Queue: 2 jobs
Job 1
Amino acid sequence: MKPHQPYEAWIFEEDLSQEEQQRLTEHLSQCEACRSLREKWLGTQTELQERAMAVPRAGFTQRWKTSLVVRKQREQKKQAWRVFWIFSGVASGVMAGVFTYFLTQISLAGWLELSVEMIHQVLGVTSSIGGVLSAWTRLYPFPLTLFMVLLFLLSLLGLIALWLFALSRTFQEGKERA
Amino acid sequence: MSTLEAEWIQEAIQGNDDSFACLVELYQRPVYNLCYRMLGNAQEAEDAAQETFWRAYQALRRYDPQRPFVTWLLSIAAHYCIDQQRKRRVPLLDLDLLPEEDIPDAAPDPARVVSERDSQGQIHQLLKKLSPLDRAAIILRYWYDFSEEDIARTLSLTVSAVKSRLFRARRELAEKYQIEVEKPLVGRRANETPSTI
Ligand SMILES: [Zn+2]
């Protein structure tokens, strides 16, 4: 293979000097292998230079416009999740920090005391809520209770709707900006 | 770059989607052709071309106006197609990204016509056998008349790397060119469609 160099490389070279061209021609007249390689390359080159351009299916730009809407929505969702994860990450980081801080500041006995106190308070709150509820059901007939529950659910729904509306507004703004 | 084109780019950067759509209309062919030559399949080329425009859309602010817009687009397309080809070894189907319009129409569409005429030569078959990066270099050289410097910039390579890749690819093409010619092709060609090229 070696004696074919540099001629073999020159076969594929686009700008040869006159001297190189001459030496190549000389080598080709004597070397069957290089001659055949050159012929094959010339055939390949001719086909390469025909270079038909492939054309997309009609309506490419329309398909772009349609996909843009979908892609933007997907991106927006991704962005929202990213913000959510960052926020949760920061929040849990802060919480972990605060927790470890207290852990190092308060002794084990202090912790025990604190937890007992907290459990006691939580129990107190639940029992007082239970008391209020039982008093309520004793004072008012069942339909009114149902009405209050519905009112509560409705206001919850209203809040969710308001939240979704705000979300869609930011979404819209993002779309206009993008 | 024409003034109209520069205007569209400017408006697109400022958020005008219609101006960007004009750029899509203007450059769909060079971008699609590159994807088609790289991936060898009409549907994959369509997806890759759409993805190229989406990536350009997202990165528009980073576009350097000193560079021709089409070169920038082709660079995005080439990198995307090279990545796709590398990923192909690990088939991973993202259902979310599947195109909605996926029904092949019976009418002879231009892409099909071109590829059928094209497949009568061996080039399309031969290109498939090159490594993605070598293929991209050959396509940019012969379909887009890029200089070695242009190819280097587009593919993020050094000029000497481009030179050696072009040499290797040309040699490989030339060697395989004959092998293809010597094979009886009559029976195989009859069922060739763009998806099998
Ligand atoms: Zn020789």
Job 2
Amino acid sequence: MSEETIVRGQLPVRPKQPLRWITTAAGVAAVVVLHALAIQGTGFEPGLLVDGWKGMASFVADAFPPDLSWEKTIRPGLDATLVTLWIGLLGTTFSVPFALLLAILAARTTTPHHLAYQASRAVLSFFRAVPDIVFALIFVTAVGLGPFAGVLALICHNTGVMGKLWAESMEECDSGPQEALRTAGANRIQQVANATLPMVVPQFVGLLLYRFDVNVRSSLVLGLVGAGGIGLLINQSIKSFRFDAMVTDILIVLVLIIAVDQLSAWVRRRLAA
Amino acid sequence: MDPALLSVRGLRKSFGNRPVLNNVGFDVRAGELVAFLGANGSGKSTTLRCVMGIAQPDAGVVAVDGDDLAKLPWRQLQEARRRTAMIFQKIHLVPRRTALDNVCAGALARIPTGRSLSPLFFPRSIQLEALDCLDRVGLADRAFERVGRLSGGQQQRVAVARALCQRADVVLADEPVSALDPHAADQVMALLHHLAHVEKLAVAAVLHQPDLALRHADRCIGLLHGTMAFDLPSSDVGPVHLDALYAPDRVAAA
Ligand SMILES: Nc1ncnc2c1ncn2[C@@H]1O[C@H](COP(=O)(O)OP(=O)(O)OP(=O)(O)O)[C@@H](O)[C@H]1O
Ligand SMILES: [Mg+2]
């Protein structure tokens, strides 16, 4: 049947790839050169760290034991942590409609037109490329300092990231069911609603939880630039040299992060079952 | 004689420089059950995919009820697609949805877009019809089971039910009984036979069981390396024809 004769007990000659060694060597050389340039460019010098150990030691001495007074540190810390959590939550859920719409337009298998595909890809790239902290600084000029600016910033950035991830998971999923509905005469919206989306629900929820996890941590950083929450408290503690209070805040954050992580792992396990 | 509901002429298709279909042509009339026979890789699925417009043939004409599909404006093409149903070799159901919802999806062309966004909004009449289709393949009692939890053969029967719910005039089936036990296979073949002879649809099915084909089909078409080996009434097909179809592969495997 096939064109080449296959002799029993003898392996056919593999197609040759003559340039393989040269390309591998060139690749390794390129990586080495890039690292040399990067070490120069960042002033990477472990010696500095050894020389400066005293500064770190005094910092740690100031920070321990952590300040565990309820009224002065723990309670404000818990309140602020809750705000951080809320920012992460709204930033994730309120971006769902935008991400969903853009993802459907930006997936090759579901897009109605290649112009819509290109346009939505560009929009998603833009929201992804601008860091959430930049969005926060922009929104602060409009709505003032505080958590609301943080929520808006996360909505924008998360739309870009989650839209891209969702679009990719739709492109990767088996397109057979969608094709079956198309040949049955269903229109594009019907195909997406009844084949593509129900096929990718587990991936979508998994990515949503992953983004919630990331966004709670981002909202911490946003707090540092004035979006409120525990990030703001940590920033204030550093500025007033209250390192023992800062350690308490960081411990509270640690508990929050672990709790969010456990929650999303649990939901994903349930979903897979 | 009934008119040809599906008529295919001069179909050609190659993948890269491997010719897969070479001048394939046939008619399927209303009220007729036609079986496609042929060895693995002889081009049976590709033929059906070209007819359905899933694969683009390099040359050839596919006409449904006399209308050349390549020349139809978009709206009428949509209607022609609605009138042709395909049961896929790889089933292509949505595993997370119930059997009933999957069968309803066959009727999407008759459901307004606004009511098709979620199975919760599917019209009651369509759901009843879907239940009826499931009943015809013997699965009404599993209507609310997720398809992913059904056995392979049960899934294949749900796929048949989905095609029924499309209310097509032409039904193409790619190995609709390959995963079925002998009894269920006979049941599905009898159903296809009923669709052709009683409901006057044009039915074509790819089969790997010549005995089932000879028993149920009115006509058998043999494909050999992408060419038409024979197109005969089932009563005229004998061991000579079948040996010619399957022998080349046996020689290669020996
Ligand atoms: N998308 C594709 N790209 C390249 N080659 C393909 C593609 N689809 C099918 N072929 C080739 O076309 C030939 C016919 O395939 P086809 O699926 O039509 O066979 P078949 O008769 O349905 O076989 P089976 O009985 O195994 O289902 C095979 O050699 C296959 O490798
Ligand atoms: Mg096949």
